[in-house]
Write a structure and sequence with these properties.
alpha+beta; q64v53_bacfr protein fold; 18 helices; 33 strands
């Protein structure tokens, strides 16, 4: 593996990976048996020949993983060349020059005769890891929004909880080819036939006939892969859903189409009660039928990109339970499906605004400086344990604290050499690449983000001048960024709407004046967004103490209380109108109270005071009163 830069775009850095796959073969099958060879990379180790106890479940699980790998929800420009040709044929006023220019542009950008550079970058092929305890398969989508890990448990024939019995095994990590021919073969697996799957590079003769191919994997993709893993180590709210609950959500989304924002899936968690799933903007409630929530405090968590849950549809009939892990606003949400003898972990990114919110929310997930010698010992400890180890077990073996072990593991996750098995809580050593890149190469998404962090390290170089709550429209942020190297001070303003997207952005930097947001957020915008996220975290910590509250001069809190449902709607959903929302804002000497059944239909009451202390006392007094009445703090969900 090597890293290099594209001469046409110095900001693009990738890892070059050499792969060697044999040609996919058709399955060997008859009425009673089925045998399929799944090609793996011959350059790396790792192979398995196994008889699967439940071929139908294995088939649907493998196809689900392939769906996650193929998912790409990024905007794709339409090719209008055929339409322009039609207009020319009809004698319309479209010149041949326009058509030829359009066609040449599309060929160059999206791949034509000379469009190899445009299509060279691609996500890494599925990662297959084999050891004596089981086999795992990991994929990450091209748009960096979905991650899946499928784990099959190994065992003897007839052993309870064993997905397969291995006949031949070579421990290691390799890549798996999931092309169309392989997927067609997997689709032919049937539960009534004894099924054997061969994960391997094939015969020596076939390997010799296969040629090497080079794959360019963007380092930003590897960085996002590591961030999804790192976020899984953070404290989170965990609860359990019944498979029918997710089915009701998917059915409702299939029957309805949201035309307004926010388009979120909101979880309302109250201790001692079953979780409630609320579909916005209709405020439809799906009452959970699984175990009650056992957390200490009530909370509301909003998640985005709910349509990506549709990839789980084929697995829900096989699922015994669904464990949900919500890390926080703008961070990934994890769904662990218990399939009996195997588990599927699906992680969905925050999906607010990947160019902005991803920068802010993952700001503190970088491991930073680490003792390379100690980190190496931790990795050796994980390599020595088949199936991985927990943080406590590694801490006991090394004599270090749990925090030190977590910091070292976070460093390895950043490089792609360790994976977190959420189902068991273990950390498993496996490498995404044969030669992992340096941690510094994956520290920042692009040079713009690196420069923004440089500005934040300077004293008073990035300043928030105003944060204005716009109610249902979002939050408007204004600030100044002083760049000593450019000898310039930039003024930037943007609004974060209720879905966490950045709208109405302006900046006095040359990049914004040249192309607006077509080139992505400017460096001053990134720096200001990072500073805003850090200030929000500081204010949240300050609210826990009386002295800290005195430092708060402006903030907004949102509280929600669920009322008794008035009627039942299709898909086990409660009709709209079952909740009331309060939005309280403190702004120096002013307190603004908004309330109503819907964020777009709120009444407002503005109260002015002679001094900030009286306004602060009124603000926190109203928050306490609403809390006593059973309102849940949903501020974190609103700030996603």
């Amino acid at each position: 593996m090597s890293t290099s830069t594209n001469s046409d775009d110095p900001s693009t850095v990738w890892a070059e990976v050499k792969l060697r796959y044999t040609a996919a073969s058709d399955p060997v099958t008859d009425d009673d048996s089925f045998r399929l060879q799944l090609p793996t990379d011959a350059v790396r180790g790792g192979a398995l020949t196994a008889s699967f106890a439940r071929p139908g479940v294995a088939r649907d699980a493998l196809l689900t993983v392939a769906d996650v790998l193929a998912s790409d929800l990024r905007f794709k420009a339409r090719d209008r060349a055929d339409y322009l040709a039609y207009l020319i044929a009809q004698g319309k006023r479209v010149s041949n020059e326009v058509w030829e220019a359009q066609k040449a542009y599309l060929d160059e950008k999206y791949g034509g005769a000379d469009g190899a550079d445009a299509t060279a970058e691609s996500p890494l092929d599925p990662i297959l890891h084999v050891d004596e305890r089981g086999t795992s398969l990991e994929v990450f989508s091209a748009d960096e929004s979905a991650y899946a890990r499928l784990y099959f448990r190994a065992g003897e024939a007839g052993e309870a909880g064993a997905a397969y019995q291995s006949r031949d095994r070579t421990d290691g990590t390799t890549h798996l080819a999931l092309g169309e021919a392989v997927l067609r073969g997997i689709g032919r697996m049937r539960s009534y036939r004894a099924t054997t799957l061969e994960f391997g590079p094939g015969t020596a003769q076939a390997q010799a006939a296969a040629g090497d191919t080079e794959q360019r994997v963007p380092l930003r993709w590897l960085r996002a892969f590591g961030q999804v893993q790192a976020a899984s180590t953070l404290p989170a709210r965990e609860f359990e859903l019944a498979p029918i609950d997710l089915y009701n959500v998917l059915l409702t989304l299939r029957m309805r189409r949201a035309k307004t924002s926010p388009r979120a899936l909101r979880y309302e968690l109250v201790p001692g009660e079953r979780p409630r799933l609320v579909l916005e903007p209709w405020d439809l409630v799906v009452e959970g039928t699984g175990p009650v929530y056992t957390g200490a405090t009530p909370i509301v968590v909003r998640t985005w990109g709910r349509n990506r849950l549709a990839v789980l549809a084929r697995l829900l009939p096989h699922t015994k339970s669904v464990k949900v892990r919500l890390v926080g606003a703008g961070l990934p949400a994890y769904y662990v499906l218990d399939l009996g003898d195997c588990e599927l972990t699906l992680a969905l990114s925050g999906w607010t605004d990947s160019g902005w919110a991803g920068i802010a929310t993952f700001d503190l997930l970088v491991a930073g400086e680490v003792d390379e010698g100690f980190a190496g010992k931790v990795l050796d400890q994980l390599h020595a344990a088949p199936g991985g180890e927990t943080l406590d077990a590694v801490a006991e073996a090394t004599g270090r604290t749990r925090a030190e072990i977590r910091h070292a593991v976070l460093h390895h996750m950043q490089r792609g050499t360790v994976v977190h098995d959420l189902a068991s809580g273990r950390f498993v050593a496996r490498s995404l690449l044969a030669e992992p890149p340096a941690a510094d190469a994956l520290r920042y998404r692009d040079p713009g983000e690196q420069q923004a962090h440089r500005l934040l390290e300077l004293d008073d170089a990035v300043r928030l001048t105003k944060v204005h709550d716009l109610g249902g429209e979002g939050t408007r942020i204004e600030g100044e960024v002083e760049d000593p190297q450019a000898h310039r001070t930039y003024r930037t303003t943007f609004t974060i709407d209720r879905e966490g997207r950045t709208v109405d952005a302006t900046c006095t930097s040359p990049q914004f004046r040249r192309s607006g947001l077509r080139e992505g957020p400017t460096v001053p915008m990134i720096a200001l967004r990072l500073l805003f996220a850090r200030r929000q975290a500081e204010l949240e910590r300050a609210r826990e103490t009386e002295a800290g509250r005195k430092l708060i001069r402006a903030e907004t809190r949102v509280l929600v209380r669920r009322q008794a449902p008035r009627r039942r709607a299709p898909a086990s959903a409660t009709a709209p109108g079952g909740s009331i929302t309060y939005r309280l804002s403190l702004d120096d000497r002013e307190v603004v109270v908004r309330w109503g059944p819907h964020p777009d239909q709120m009444r407002m009451h503005r109260i002015c005071f002679a001094n900030p202390d009286d306004a602060r006392e009124e603000y926190f007094g109203r928050l306490a009163t609403l809390g006593e009445k059973g309102f849940i703090d949903a501020s974190a969900a609103e700030m996603a």
